[in-house]
Design goal:
Elements (H helix, E strand, L loop, with lengths): L12 H8 L4 E5 L5 E2 L14 E5 L3 E10 L13 E8 L4 E6 L12 E8 L5 E7 L1
Antiparallel strand pairs: 1-2, 1-3, 4-5, 4-7, 5-6, 7-8
Length: 132
């Protein structure tokens, strides 16, 4: 069974195009200077529409995580067990992603991770993380 694909909205297209090129982009508000993730049309901190795309280092640490061991939706059943995590990037934003190439029993909060990418289709490449 095929997995669902993310919806690529016009304002998020630069993020997905960069991911396809194996680069991780986040937004920065040019008014208040704060970094933002997930892609948005306006700054959640000050309401400004003056947002720029900046390249993130792709390094961070696990803020929180869960290991899915059973009852995954059928399109993900072949991946069980898998890890879903909230990763805090060096830039201060948090993003949800899978942590791959790891022993789920060895994971812990604050574990350093680095971005990696999985090409799903010609248009969609997913940023994921692995222990650094």
């Amino acid at each position: 069974m095929s997995r669902p694909l993310p919806r690529v909205d016009a304002w998020a297209r630069p993020y997905w195009e960069a991911a396809r090129d194996r680069r991780l982009l986040i937004q920065r508000c040019e008014t208040c200077g704060r970094n933002i993730f997930y892609p948005r049309l306006e700054c959640p901190h000050c309401g400004s529409h003056q947002l720029a795309w900046v390249e993130a280092t792709g390094r961070g640490s696990i803020y929180s995580f869960s290991v899915v061991r059973s009852y995954a939706p059928s399109s993900f059943a072949d991946l069980v067990p898998f890890v879903i995590a909230i990763v805090e990037l060096e830039e201060g934003v948090r993003m949800m992603a899978n942590v791959i190439d790891c022993d789920p029993e060895g994971l812990r909060c604050d574990l350093p991770v680095a971005v990696t990418y999985e090409t799903i289709t010609e248009e969609v490449t997913l940023p994921q993380f692995r222990p650094a």
